[in-house]
Design brief:
Blueprint: E1 8-11, H1 12-22, H2 32-40, H3 55-62, E2 66-74, E3 77-85, E4 90-95, E5 101-106, H4 112-119, E6 135-139, H5 140-153, H6 158-165, H7 169-175, E7 180-189, E8 198-207, E9 213-218, E10 233-239, H8 241-251
Amino acid sequence: MDPTRRRLRLADAHISTLGLLVEEGEIPDELAQAAAELREAGILDGENKISGELYPLVSTLMEPHIIVRAEVTGPQGVAISGAVAGNDFIFTHEAWPGDVESEYIPVEPQYLVWALSRMVDLHQDDADADDVGEEIVTTMGVLDQVLDRMESEGADDWVSVAQAVGAPPRLAEILSQLNCMWRMTVAWPGGKGGPDGLGVSALAIWDCGIEGYWVREAPADPITEGQVDDASQLKVRRTTAKEIWQQITDLLPDRDELLVEPSPAV
Protein backbone atom coordinates (compact mmCIF):
# COMPACT_ATOMS: atom_id res chain seq x y z
CA MET A 1 0.00 0.00 0.00
CA ASP A 2 1.35 3.40 -1.04
CA PRO A 3 -0.87 5.99 0.72
CA THR A 4 1.06 8.90 -0.77
CA ARG A 5 -0.10 8.03 -4.29
CA ARG A 6 -3.24 6.13 -3.22
CA ARG A 7 -2.13 2.98 -5.00
CA LEU A 8 -2.08 -0.68 -3.98
CA ARG A 9 -0.71 -3.97 -5.30
CA LEU A 10 -3.28 -6.73 -4.92
CA ALA A 11 -3.80 -10.22 -6.30
CA ASP A 12 -7.18 -11.81 -6.99
CA ALA A 13 -6.85 -13.72 -3.70
CA HIS A 14 -6.50 -10.43 -1.83
CA ILE A 15 -9.60 -9.03 -3.54
CA SER A 16 -11.57 -12.17 -2.67
CA THR A 17 -10.47 -11.91 0.96
CA LEU A 18 -11.53 -8.26 1.20
CA GLY A 19 -14.89 -9.10 -0.35
CA LEU A 20 -15.55 -11.84 2.20
CA LEU A 21 -14.65 -9.53 5.08
CA VAL A 22 -17.00 -6.83 3.80
CA GLU A 23 -19.77 -9.43 3.69
CA GLU A 24 -18.72 -10.58 7.17
CA GLY A 25 -17.90 -14.02 5.87
CA GLU A 26 -15.36 -16.49 7.20
CA ILE A 27 -11.91 -16.63 5.61
CA PRO A 28 -11.40 -20.16 4.19
CA ASP A 29 -8.08 -21.94 4.57
CA GLU A 30 -7.11 -21.32 0.95
CA LEU A 31 -7.22 -17.55 1.58
CA ALA A 32 -5.39 -17.61 4.91
CA GLN A 33 -2.09 -16.67 3.27
CA ALA A 34 -3.73 -13.78 1.42
CA ALA A 35 -5.22 -12.50 4.69
CA ALA A 36 -1.81 -12.71 6.36
CA GLU A 37 -0.27 -10.69 3.53
CA LEU A 38 -2.97 -8.04 3.88
CA ARG A 39 -2.26 -7.77 7.59
CA GLU A 40 1.47 -7.50 6.94
CA ALA A 41 0.83 -4.68 4.47
CA GLY A 42 -1.31 -2.80 7.00
CA ILE A 43 -4.48 -3.23 4.95
CA LEU A 44 -6.03 -5.37 7.71
CA ASP A 45 -5.53 -4.99 11.44
CA GLY A 46 -5.17 -7.81 13.94
CA GLU A 47 -8.96 -8.26 14.05
CA ASN A 48 -9.25 -8.39 10.25
CA LYS A 49 -10.79 -4.93 10.04
CA ILE A 50 -10.12 -3.18 6.75
CA SER A 51 -8.13 0.03 6.81
CA GLY A 52 -10.25 3.13 6.18
CA GLU A 53 -7.92 4.06 3.34
CA LEU A 54 -9.33 1.07 1.43
CA TYR A 55 -12.90 2.39 1.48
CA PRO A 56 -12.79 3.96 -2.02
CA LEU A 57 -11.45 0.81 -3.66
CA VAL A 58 -13.56 -1.69 -1.70
CA SER A 59 -16.80 0.27 -2.18
CA THR A 60 -16.12 0.48 -5.92
CA LEU A 61 -15.32 -3.22 -6.28
CA MET A 62 -18.39 -4.26 -4.27
CA GLU A 63 -20.84 -2.21 -6.36
CA PRO A 64 -19.32 -1.68 -9.81
CA HIS A 65 -21.31 0.18 -12.44
CA ILE A 66 -18.83 -0.11 -15.28
CA ILE A 67 -16.21 -2.84 -15.67
CA VAL A 68 -13.47 -2.63 -18.31
CA ARG A 69 -11.23 -5.59 -19.17
CA ALA A 70 -8.13 -5.12 -21.34
CA GLU A 71 -6.55 -8.41 -22.40
CA VAL A 72 -3.13 -7.97 -24.03
CA THR A 73 -1.48 -11.01 -25.66
CA GLY A 74 2.19 -10.76 -26.54
CA PRO A 75 5.43 -12.76 -26.55
CA GLN A 76 5.45 -12.97 -22.74
CA GLY A 77 1.90 -14.28 -22.52
CA VAL A 78 -1.36 -12.63 -21.52
CA ALA A 79 -1.70 -9.67 -19.16
CA ILE A 80 -5.13 -8.65 -17.86
CA SER A 81 -5.70 -5.02 -16.93
CA GLY A 82 -8.80 -2.85 -16.75
CA ALA A 83 -10.89 -0.42 -14.78
CA VAL A 84 -13.84 -0.40 -12.41
CA ALA A 85 -16.19 2.56 -11.92
CA GLY A 86 -18.56 2.88 -8.98
CA ASN A 87 -20.83 5.58 -7.62
CA ASP A 88 -18.04 7.85 -6.44
CA PHE A 89 -14.71 6.46 -7.60
CA ILE A 90 -12.94 4.96 -10.60
CA PHE A 91 -9.95 2.64 -10.26
CA THR A 92 -7.70 1.21 -12.92
CA HIS A 93 -5.68 -1.97 -12.42
CA GLU A 94 -2.67 -3.06 -14.41
CA ALA A 95 -0.75 -6.34 -14.41
CA TRP A 96 2.60 -7.56 -15.68
CA PRO A 97 2.73 -10.87 -17.61
CA GLY A 98 3.25 -13.70 -15.15
CA ASP A 99 2.70 -11.52 -12.06
CA VAL A 100 -0.25 -12.45 -9.81
CA GLU A 101 -0.56 -8.93 -8.41
CA SER A 102 -2.00 -5.89 -10.16
CA GLU A 103 -1.51 -2.25 -9.31
CA TYR A 104 -4.75 -0.46 -8.42
CA ILE A 105 -4.76 3.32 -8.90
CA PRO A 106 -7.61 5.87 -8.64
CA VAL A 107 -8.27 7.87 -11.79
CA GLU A 108 -10.36 10.94 -12.46
CA PRO A 109 -13.25 10.44 -14.92
CA GLN A 110 -11.82 12.83 -17.51
CA TYR A 111 -8.61 10.77 -17.63
CA LEU A 112 -10.20 7.34 -17.99
CA VAL A 113 -9.85 7.06 -21.79
CA TRP A 114 -6.23 8.19 -21.50
CA ALA A 115 -5.57 5.54 -18.83
CA LEU A 116 -7.22 2.79 -20.89
CA SER A 117 -5.23 3.82 -23.97
CA ARG A 118 -1.99 3.68 -22.03
CA MET A 119 -2.81 0.15 -20.80
CA VAL A 120 -2.69 -1.10 -24.39
CA ASP A 121 0.24 1.16 -25.34
CA LEU A 122 -1.76 3.17 -27.83
CA HIS A 123 0.79 5.43 -29.48
CA GLN A 124 0.98 7.78 -32.41
CA ASP A 125 1.53 5.85 -35.61
CA ASP A 126 3.02 6.95 -38.92
CA ALA A 127 0.41 5.35 -41.14
CA ASP A 128 0.32 6.69 -44.65
CA ALA A 129 -3.10 7.98 -45.64
CA ASP A 130 -3.08 5.62 -48.63
CA ASP A 131 -2.61 2.60 -46.32
CA VAL A 132 -5.49 3.39 -43.98
CA GLY A 133 -8.57 1.36 -44.84
CA GLU A 134 -6.67 -1.56 -46.39
CA GLU A 135 -8.56 -4.81 -45.71
CA ILE A 136 -7.53 -8.45 -45.45
CA VAL A 137 -10.19 -11.18 -45.56
CA THR A 138 -9.65 -14.87 -44.86
CA THR A 139 -10.81 -17.36 -42.18
CA MET A 140 -10.01 -17.86 -38.51
CA GLY A 141 -8.57 -21.29 -39.32
CA VAL A 142 -6.03 -19.76 -41.69
CA LEU A 143 -5.09 -17.18 -39.06
CA ASP A 144 -4.43 -19.92 -36.49
CA GLN A 145 -2.26 -21.82 -38.98
CA VAL A 146 -0.20 -18.73 -39.78
CA LEU A 147 0.34 -17.93 -36.10
CA ASP A 148 1.23 -21.54 -35.23
CA ARG A 149 3.71 -21.79 -38.08
CA MET A 150 5.33 -18.46 -37.23
CA GLU A 151 5.65 -19.48 -33.59
CA SER A 152 7.38 -22.74 -34.48
CA GLU A 153 9.48 -21.58 -37.45
CA GLY A 154 9.92 -17.85 -36.85
CA ALA A 155 8.26 -14.90 -38.53
CA ASP A 156 11.10 -13.82 -40.82
CA ASP A 157 10.18 -15.93 -43.84
CA TRP A 158 6.57 -14.84 -44.02
CA VAL A 159 6.37 -15.60 -47.75
CA SER A 160 7.01 -19.31 -47.14
CA VAL A 161 4.56 -19.33 -44.25
CA ALA A 162 1.81 -17.86 -46.42
CA GLN A 163 2.49 -20.36 -49.21
CA ALA A 164 2.58 -23.33 -46.84
CA VAL A 165 -0.88 -22.71 -45.37
CA GLY A 166 -2.55 -21.00 -48.32
CA ALA A 167 -2.88 -17.67 -46.51
CA PRO A 168 -3.09 -14.25 -48.13
CA PRO A 169 0.55 -13.09 -48.36
CA ARG A 170 -0.37 -9.73 -46.87
CA LEU A 171 -1.75 -11.42 -43.75
CA ALA A 172 1.53 -13.20 -43.12
CA GLU A 173 3.45 -10.02 -43.89
CA ILE A 174 1.71 -7.88 -41.27
CA LEU A 175 1.77 -10.68 -38.68
CA SER A 176 5.53 -10.92 -39.13
CA GLN A 177 5.66 -7.47 -37.46
CA LEU A 178 3.11 -8.26 -34.73
CA ASN A 179 3.85 -6.68 -31.36
CA CYS A 180 0.67 -7.80 -29.63
CA MET A 181 -3.03 -8.41 -30.00
CA TRP A 182 -5.38 -6.81 -27.53
CA ARG A 183 -9.07 -6.87 -26.76
CA MET A 184 -10.94 -4.34 -24.65
CA THR A 185 -14.38 -5.24 -23.29
CA VAL A 186 -16.75 -2.98 -21.34
CA ALA A 187 -19.76 -4.25 -19.38
CA TRP A 188 -22.41 -2.34 -17.44
CA PRO A 189 -25.85 -3.08 -15.97
CA GLY A 190 -29.02 -2.28 -17.82
CA GLY A 191 -27.88 -2.97 -21.35
CA LYS A 192 -30.53 -3.81 -23.92
CA GLY A 193 -30.32 -7.32 -25.30
CA GLY A 194 -27.13 -8.18 -23.45
CA PRO A 195 -26.49 -11.38 -21.47
CA ASP A 196 -27.88 -11.30 -17.92
CA GLY A 197 -29.15 -7.78 -18.42
CA LEU A 198 -25.68 -6.44 -19.13
CA GLY A 199 -24.68 -3.99 -21.79
CA VAL A 200 -21.49 -5.13 -23.48
CA SER A 201 -19.19 -3.49 -26.03
CA ALA A 202 -15.79 -4.63 -27.22
CA LEU A 203 -12.90 -3.85 -29.54
CA ALA A 204 -10.11 -6.09 -30.89
CA ILE A 205 -6.88 -4.59 -32.26
CA TRP A 206 -3.63 -5.91 -33.74
CA ASP A 207 -0.55 -3.79 -33.09
CA CYS A 208 1.71 -4.73 -35.99
CA GLY A 209 4.61 -2.35 -35.41
CA ILE A 210 5.78 -0.78 -38.66
CA GLU A 211 2.71 -2.28 -40.36
CA GLY A 212 0.50 -0.17 -38.10
CA TYR A 213 -2.77 -0.84 -36.30
CA TRP A 214 -5.43 -3.23 -37.58
CA VAL A 215 -8.95 -3.50 -36.18
CA ARG A 216 -10.62 -6.91 -36.35
CA GLU A 217 -14.05 -6.30 -37.83
CA ALA A 218 -15.02 -9.97 -38.25
CA PRO A 219 -15.68 -11.86 -36.16
CA ALA A 220 -16.81 -8.75 -34.34
CA ASP A 221 -16.42 -8.50 -30.60
CA PRO A 222 -17.95 -9.31 -28.21
CA ILE A 223 -17.76 -12.99 -29.20
CA THR A 224 -19.87 -15.55 -27.37
CA GLU A 225 -18.75 -19.11 -26.65
CA GLY A 226 -19.16 -21.38 -29.66
CA GLN A 227 -19.76 -18.49 -32.04
CA VAL A 228 -16.45 -18.83 -33.90
CA ASP A 229 -14.86 -21.84 -35.61
CA ASP A 230 -12.15 -22.39 -38.21
CA ALA A 231 -14.53 -21.53 -41.05
CA SER A 232 -15.59 -18.21 -39.55
CA GLN A 233 -14.65 -15.18 -41.60
CA LEU A 234 -11.70 -13.08 -40.49
CA LYS A 235 -11.65 -9.49 -41.65
CA VAL A 236 -9.11 -6.93 -40.46
CA ARG A 237 -8.81 -3.31 -41.56
CA ARG A 238 -5.87 -0.96 -41.19
CA THR A 239 -6.72 1.92 -38.92
CA THR A 240 -5.05 4.76 -37.03
CA ALA A 241 -4.30 5.57 -33.41
CA LYS A 242 -6.69 8.51 -33.66
CA GLU A 243 -9.57 6.25 -34.73
CA ILE A 244 -8.76 3.72 -32.00
CA TRP A 245 -8.84 6.50 -29.39
CA GLN A 246 -12.35 7.38 -30.55
CA GLN A 247 -13.39 3.71 -30.55
CA ILE A 248 -12.21 3.31 -26.95
CA THR A 249 -14.23 6.40 -26.05
CA ASP A 250 -17.28 4.93 -27.79
CA LEU A 251 -16.97 1.67 -25.82
CA LEU A 252 -17.95 3.43 -22.60
CA PRO A 253 -21.70 3.69 -21.93
CA ASP A 254 -23.59 6.94 -21.82
CA ARG A 255 -25.13 7.99 -18.52
CA ASP A 256 -28.63 7.07 -19.67
CA GLU A 257 -27.48 3.48 -20.35
CA LEU A 258 -26.79 2.82 -16.68
CA LEU A 259 -29.34 1.40 -14.25
CA VAL A 260 -28.01 3.59 -11.45
CA GLU A 261 -28.01 7.36 -11.26
CA PRO A 262 -24.30 8.17 -11.35
CA SER A 263 -22.85 10.78 -9.07
CA PRO A 264 -20.94 13.73 -10.58
CA ALA A 265 -17.70 11.81 -9.92
CA VAL A 266 -18.52 9.12 -12.54
